[in-house]
Amino acid sequence: MTAKFTARAPAKINLTLHVTGQRDDGYHLLDSLVVFAEDCADALSFTPDERLSIAVTGPFADGIPTDDRNLIWKAAQAAGWTGTIHLEKNLPHGGGLGGGSSDAGAALRAFGHPDQTAALSLGADVPVCLLGRAARMTGIGERVAPAALPDGLWAVLVNPGIPLPTPHVFARVTRKTNPPMTPAPATTDLAGWLDWLRSQRNDLEAAAIQLNPSIQDVLSAIKATDHIELARMSGSGSTCFGLYTDKTHAEAACATLRRGRPDWWCELTAIR
Ligand code: C5P
Predict the structure, then answer these.
(1) Average pLDDT for residues 151-167, to the nearest whole number?
(2) Spatial contact of 271 and 38, defined as CB atoms under 8 Å apart
(3) Which residues are registered as beta bridge partners of 137?
(4) How far is the CA of 188 from the centre of ligand 1 (A)?
(5) Which residues have C-beta atoms less than 6 Å from ligand 1?
(6) What angle, 0 to 180 degrees and rounded to 10, lies between the N-to-C axes of helices 99-110 and 71-79?
(7) Residue 237 in contact with residue 215, Cβ under 8 Å?
(8) Closest Cα to atom 20, ligand 1: which residue?
(9) Residue 235: which of 12, 10, 40 has the closest Cα?
């Protein structure tokens, strides 16, 4: 029997999310710049044994399945791994941060089973989470190309505590065919790169706000912080992010948001 090992499943953040079409099976074609949070993650540990089991603790443990409905369980089955898995659930679920997908991607990495086909069978977001670093994601999520990111970007993640089921948000999107991302400029020109990012979109934002108007409050609160570069929703929501180019500014913004809305989940992180 081998020893216990651990993995981190960082929050996934969609800096852009363009809906460019829809397949006959209903899945949407996407063009998305995906990044990962350095400082904001679920923590997993794995102790090999004969039987598979999952235990969940942490601030967002409530409601997380501990059987084959959990994507980590499915990842273990795909890798042919058995043992006891402990998941410390630090990320809000139903939050646009890819919690379950990131857990599955981290588990596949930890099992030494970096199989993109297995990843895609677990969910459209799992291939990019298996890579676990900045990437452009296209198709329904199966095409993942590593992307460069400028240095020195800080994000504040804000979740208003109302989970939003992804299929409901996609179903509300009226225009399914939208332009893809335009080409990104060199990452060495931070101001130019941020101008480009501001000109891109999250095509799920309007639909998500219709379903959960508190997302608009979150975006307004982030936009009102000092030195904000960009406020946008991640994934299908309801988590939104603010971007800052200075850690001190991001820390101050996070503190302001927490003071203003102690009921919201607000976290500061570097992104990669
Ligand atoms: O693949 P996953 O199970 O994460 O997707 C959840 C739901 O989100 C799908 O059932 C589908 O309704 C929607 N979805 C989509 N197009 C994508 C990804 C997800 O329509 N590219």
Answers:
(1) 95
(2) yes
(3) 32, 144
(4) 34
(5) 27-28, 30, 123-125, 140-141, 166-167, 170
(6) 20
(7) yes
(8) 27
(9) 12
- Average model confidence (pLDDT) for the chain? 97
The Å distance, Cα 200 to ligand 1 centre, comes to 21
Q: For residue range 170-229, list pLDDT tens digits in order.
A: 999 999 999 999 999 999 999 999 999 999 999 999 999 999 999 999 999 999 999 999
Residue with tokens 């399945």: 65
Q: What is the pLDDT of residues 224-260, one digit of tens each?
A: 999 999 999 999 999 999 999 999 999 999 999 999 9
* Partner residues linked to 268 by β-bridges: 156
Residues 230 and 203: their CA atoms lie apart, in Å, by 16
What is the spatial distance between Cα 122 and Cα 219, in angstroms, rounded to a whole number? Answer: 31
CA-CA distance, 220 to 146, in Å (whole number)?
Answer: 31
% of the chain surpassing 90 pLDDT: 97
How far is C-alpha 39 from the chain's CA centre?
13
Q: Which residues are the active-site residues? A: 12, 125
* Cα-to-centroid distance, 25 and ligand 1 (Å): 11
Distance CA 19, CA 26 (A): 12
Please state whether the predicted TM-score (pTM) of the whole model is above 0.85: yes
- Which phi and psi angles does 271 have, rounded to 5°? -125, 155
